[in-house]
Amino acid sequence: MGSDVLAALTAIVGEQRVLTGDAVAAVEFPWGTHAECSARAIVEPETIDEVAAILRCCNEARQTVVPFGGLTNLVQGCATSPDDIVLSLKRLNRIESVDASAGVLTAEAGVTLQQAQDAAASAGLFFPVDIGARNNCQLGGLVANNAGGNKVIRYGMTRDTVLGLEAVLADGTVISSLNRFIKNNSGFDLKHMFIGSEGVLGVITRLVFRLRATATSHNVALVACEDFDAVVATLEIANKTLSSTLSAFEVMWNSFYELAVEPQGRLVAPLEPGATLYVLIETMGSDQQQDMQAFEALLEDLMERGLLVDGVLAKSEKEREQIWQIRDEVEPVIGGSHNFDVSLRSADIGDYVSQVETTIGEILPEANVIAFGHLGDNNVHVSVGGVEWNAASIRSVEQAVYGCLEPFAGAISAEHGIGLEKRQYLPISRTDAEIELMRSLKRMLDPNNILNPGKVVDAAE
Ligand SMILES: Cc1cc2nc3c(=O)[nH]c(=O)nc-3n(C[C@H](O)[C@H](O)[C@H](O)COP(=O)(O)OP(=O)(O)OC[C@H]3O[C@@H](n4cnc5c(N)ncnc54)[C@H](O)[C@@H]3O)c2cc1C
């Protein structure tokens, strides 16, 4: 069967776009997100018709298919087995249009986030999703994961920015739901079924995004706090004072900050390391002078209240970038670590992180626990490193991180998704009825279980 499928796929896309053998093993995962790629072949369609023909062919042959975007997901969402076919979206990389007057960008799934941001900027508009992996991650992957990122507090998750999409079902049916309007209540809004479905319900091929006005003022501050209560109070006051201009509120424990600015010395340290916590606060508005004054007044107020031990407001675009780099360049933190991404009440995050540190310290004293994240969106990332990883150490760390989460009724994935890595823990965050409905949807749309099998839910259970 295997060679028949390969011959059929070659007939669809041509020999040059069916990669096998060493070309499969040579796939590189940015940031080491996955260990290796092992698959029967990687197929690289260039058109939607080719995607549909590939899926039709694989469905008929009961051939499993793993969609590959930019490969930056952190949950083993692109894990493959030697029997899989990889469907790479990288050649579906056309920006079809930017309609500046409607504020709408239409693009194929393989366009990178950076390319979409640049295209929006060229039209004088703003693409409202931003994550550190912007150069690698693709729009299709971003939507398949419903990524969050750095601007959620202001513009919402990726879902909130998608107006329409096109997806190809497992049997090759093309569902073109390329809505371009902010309002469209004509029956079920089918795009939501595919947003955040991690490649298990269909392959996303085209997307329509809502762009926003480009902010004409931009301010970034880095502040230091002695305890988590001060950070929470700072968030509450910033939310009230800065109101709709607040666009990011990112927290970094000192362990994160130190690793980013020392000892590599790669990054400028606007504040000395050593405080308990650091927070990046950003506003985007429409009047630089007025917004800067409001920001300065806020920082003075926070200082007077004793909430900050230190703080600096960037005075130029270069300084703003330098502060963002500290938060964005997570490679020294996440590389070789086991990374978690949980959601809970912002005010509980300090206690939660302390409990995780204590619990992991008891079972694996050699472990480093590093925390950082999008505090303004109830989201903290916990990276556990310094451990020799094997099945037992992975399991005990996962149990510690998720065990500490349960009393807080938190979510096991704030934004990274479930993939293969978190599937067994899904019942912590979803009821049996919810999981069964997810399985029913999967069975209905992909009855032969060919699409990214085993990710999110096990349809065979
Ligand atoms: C440095 C770094 C920073 C990050 N920061 C953030 C962050 O702030 N917020 C956040 O949410 N995530 C973040 N991530 C995680 C990751 O970047 C996002 O989840 C991103 O959306 C994945 O996009 P991708 O194109 O790389 O998708 P992939 O990793 O290639 O795929 C993700 C999943 O979607 C499926 N898939 C891919 N393309 C398609 C398609 N066209 N149709 C259907 N299914 C598809 C895959 O099979 C897989 O299950 C970060 C990752 C790194 C490495």
The number of helical segments is: 16
The CATH class name of the largest domain reads Alpha Beta
Strand content: 15-25%
How helix-rich are the residues, as a percent range? 25-40%
In the predicted model, the low-confidence regions spanning at least 5 consecutive residues are none
Report on the biggest sheet. 7 strands, antiparallel
End-to-end gap: 26 Å
Cross-sheet strand order for the largest sheet? 15-12-14-13-17-18-16
Helix and strand content put the structural class at: alpha+beta
**How large, in whole angstroms, is the Cα Rg?**
23 Å
- Name every ligand kind in the structure: flavin-adenine dinucleotide
CATH architecture of the largest domain: 2-Layer Sandwich
Overall shape: it is: globular
Q: What count of domains describes the coordinates?
A: 4
CATH topology of the largest domain: Uridine Diphospho-n-acetylenolpyruvylglucosamine Reductase, domain 3
For the secondary structure, the number of strands is 18
Tell me, rounded to a whole number, the average pLDDT: 95
